[in-house]
């Protein structure tokens, strides 16, 4: 009987998520096309409307969770956040559920979350256009192999990031970067030979380029650690109501001068920045352990 109820909850929850998404996505896409009119005040106004609609989508997702799949969200360290500041949000990444958790946690506390996306994701039906309308940056990273073959490409990544961040300089925004670059799995962990028990190695390039492009404007770093006491869920697990507890630790950090520099061309800075990021990840590992211990307590 329990299995049947779980399947029904899963089906109804996913249906509500789909309806909610399409309800808000279509007007957001219309906003994207309206922004093509090259009048700056008009574009800013339409951007505000698009972000407002997206914020309502997040609020409705949270309502669906409260009604269909309630869970206990245990949060520590959520202080000193303002909805009218600029933030860089970094987090460990284990599941697509992470995004729903972060949106719920930070909704109305900081500006709407903008994610850096792979350029291929613009072709996702409906959602790709919605992300474009919401000014999500679509990125194409230059690989080491490409740089070796064509050294003239060096610096292209920071230029791409700078252009993507230009539109963020007039309206408060929260820029999200999953520093590990991909979701945690045991196979990826072994393949990387990660020095961390519950984390993948942090990748410095993306966050370094954002700080180089916008470091003088970003207010703080919001460093989020997410832990699932009952094991890492996928979206179907979440929609089925199998997730009963989620633990989150939030650390609001200042952006020091040591984090801003020329990552592409300054070797000393690159080494220093990676070292600073590794220290953050060592602290995150300790936070993961504390959250695990609290799971038993």
What does this structure look like?
This protein is globular. A six-stranded mixed sheet has the order 1-8-7-2-6-3, sandwiched between helices. It has a two-stranded parallel ribbon with strand order 4-5. It is of the alpha/beta class and 297 residues long. It is built from ten helices and eight strands. Helix 1 runs antiparallel to helix 2 and helix 1 crosses helix 4. The chain starts with a helix and ends with a helix. It is 50% helix and 13% strand. The mean pLDDT is 89. The longest helix is centred in the first third of the chain and has 33 residues.
Compressed to H and E, one letter per element, the order equals HHEEHEEHEHHEHHEHEH
Q: What is the oligomer described by this structure? A: single chain
Mean of residue pLDDT? Answer: 89
**Taking strands numbered 1, 2, ... along the chain, how are they ordered across the largest sheet?**
1-8-7-2-6-3
What structural category characterises the helix and strand content? alpha/beta
In whole angstroms, how far apart are the ends? 31 Å
How helical, in percent, are the residues? 40-55%
Q: What profile does the largest beta sheet have? A: 6 strands, mixed
Strand content: 5-15%
The helix tally amounts to 10
Counting DSSP E segments of at least 2 residues, the number of strands comes to 8
What spatial form do the alpha-carbon principal axes imply?
A: globular
- Rg, rounded, reads 20 Å
Which spans have pLDDT < 50 for at least 5 consecutive residues?
none
Short description:
By secondary structure, this protein is of the alpha/beta class.
């Amino acid at each position: 009987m329990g299995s049947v109820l779980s399947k029904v909850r899963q089906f109804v929850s996913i249906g509500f998520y789909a309806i909610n998404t399409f309800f808000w996505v279509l007007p957001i896409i219309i906003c994207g096309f309206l922004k093509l009119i090259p009048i700056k005040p008009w574009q800013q106004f339409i951007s505000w409307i698009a972000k407002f609609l997206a914020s309502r989508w997040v609020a409705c997702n949270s309502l669906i969770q409260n009604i269909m799949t309630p869970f206990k969200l245990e949060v520590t360290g959520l202080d000193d956040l303002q909805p009218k500041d600029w933030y860089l949000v970094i987090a460990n990444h284990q599941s697509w559920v992470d995004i729903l958790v972060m949106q719920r946690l930070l909704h109305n506390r900081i500006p709407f979350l903008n994610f850096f996306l792979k350029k291929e994701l613009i072709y996702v039906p409906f959602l790709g256009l919605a992300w474009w309308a919401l000014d999500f940056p679509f990125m194409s990273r230059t690989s080491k192999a490409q740089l070796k073959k064509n050294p003239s490409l060096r610096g292209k990544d920071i230029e791409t990031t700078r252009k993507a961040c230009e539109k963020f300089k007039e309206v408060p925004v929260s820029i999200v970067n999953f520093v590990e670059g991909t979701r945690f799995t045991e196979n990826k962990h072994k393949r990387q030979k990660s020095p961390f028990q519950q984390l993948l190695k942090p990748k410095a390039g993306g966050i370094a380029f954002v700080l180089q492009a916008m470091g003088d404007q970003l207010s703080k770093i919001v460093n989020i650690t997410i832990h699932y006491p009952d094991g890492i869920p996928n979206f179907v697990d979440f929609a089925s109501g199998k997730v009963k507890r989620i633990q989150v630790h939030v650390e609001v950090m200042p952006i020091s001068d040591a984090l801003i520099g020329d990552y592409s061309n300054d070797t000393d800075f690159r080494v220093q920045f990676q070292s600073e990021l590794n220290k953050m990840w060592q602290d995150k590992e300790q936070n993961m352990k504390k959250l695990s211990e609290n799971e038993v307590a």
